[in-house]
Amino acid sequence: MRPTVVTGRPWLIADEAGKLIDDIDTDQIYHNAHLAITDPKEMARYAFGNLKGWEDFPKKARPGDVLFVGENFGAGSSRQHAVDCFLALGIVAIVGRSFGAIYRRNAINSGLPLLLLPDMPVARLRDLPQVTVNLETGEIQGPDGEKVVRAEPMSRVALDIYRAGSLLKLGAR
Amino acid sequence: MGQTVIEKILAAHSRDEIAPGKIIWLGIDVRTARDFAGASVVKNFRRAFPGAKVDDPKKTFFTFDCNAPANTIAYAQNQQACRVFAREQGIRVYDVDWGIGSHVLLEEGLALPGATVVGTDSHLNVLGAVGAFGQGMGDVDIAYVFRTGRTWFEVPPTMKVVLHGRYEFPTTAKDLTLAVVGRLGARGALGRAVEVTGSAADALDLAGRITLASMATEMGAIIAFLPPSDEAMEFARAASGRDDLAYPVPDPDAAYEETVELDVTGLRPKISAPPNPENVHDVADLEGEPVQTIVVGSCTNGRYEDIRLVAEILKGKRVAPGVVLKVSPATRRAWGRLLKEGWLEVLYDAGAVVSHPACAGCAEGQIGMTGEGEVQLSTGNRNFPGKQGKGPTYLCSPATAAASALTGTITSPERL
Fold first, then answer.
1. Right CATH number for A5-171 from 3.90.230.10, 3.30.450.40, 3.20.19.10, 3.40.47.10?
2. A43 and A34 Cβ atoms separated by less than 8 Å
3. Is the ipTM of this structure higher than 0.85?
């Protein structure tokens, strides 16, 4: 059973001015030049490979990290690679102001937790060395257990799939 | 708070709370895959559920329509992979001789008012024409549905499109549809269920309802539901042999995110110019543009009624020199009825070529593609660059297609 409370370093996917980047599409997350790759482990090193200022993200990311993203994250194509590359890096959750519709479906099917947080306290999050995210309640805490903000919790359906590992693993039960 | 049509259908197939934005587990009555993505469904199923059976073979179907009969080895292999899986599982295959899957589901009485139907066809929402919830999904989703009989779905908000007034022939359901697409645009109904109402919607026959419902995808909608009609109910009863069917209707106090009203009185024939379906004009404004290829068919306008209308207009006349008129009925049944009633002979005498029942020009060029500079008129639903070849494609009604076939240029049927 996968944990429903996850702890890791927060990454604010922002521009040079510190503003969260909106409308990051699947080509910026995972460029179409690498679509022929089918082994998720290999996908890891191309995550954000086409997002200005974030090209070296796969070298900096560590298992357990949590991403905080802007509006319409994952807009564009239906490629599953744009979800799988983060799972391969060990990213445990993505908290965003909003997500592209197909990206959302793909992420749920792959068991990557996405949490909606329209009012993102960017300045507060930036100062935190570590966050704890409760996927069931949406509660986000700082390193000393202090309450920071509450995102929309994952739906029961998304949690069912997350706990099983993926939609197909749930079906295999 | 009352429920909209989509909310009623979802509530009848789920134990979860139904409200826009909620993700629910949804029971699926009819589970299908076509030759596009069908082989991937099989591959996913075999990998994820080795040795397992599908949830219910009687509710599971393959429909081959994209490349039928297969004219590439890749498609032949994919279709065969589906057939082998179907034999192992006891699943019915509507093979390459049946026609467009969504229409076959209607004719065979499988897609019924109030039912939930999924498949690998992005136009499966055409089933909204009879009050069924049809939805296209990817190959992972469909493999899961084959195994479990359910999937998850995010309850969409509902918008209402009210079509006031009435129009006269030769303006038809396709012109009405293009007018709505032009008004809403490609994102006007994005992520929503649409309920189409009003006098012009009520007046549509079943073929016209199918035409309008089929282009919900081009407005970004999850699905468009048409209001109940005696003809649609009678059709569903006859096709299924069931008399316990109920057409889903919204509660009087159902909540709508937006209401768009359109008066279609005096509406003139419409045409979508390249590069996308929302680029809608009056046919009269584009008259005179030379045309080399005309395709009549597709899930939007491949019904018996559509092709008969083209034959009626062409009867005793000849297609203009330099024009190839290609006709592909949506299903084998439509094809057979047109044949037996003599309409295919009329089309032959007029110079048309009549092809196999399938997806026509829309998918992988089942009825051929265009070369650069080859101008095509199509009764289909998409005209994106490159989709049907290198040439530009215009979308129009069967009547406009027939009128233009006679002149070799874009011609309004108002001139007939």
1. 3.20.19.10
2. yes
3. no
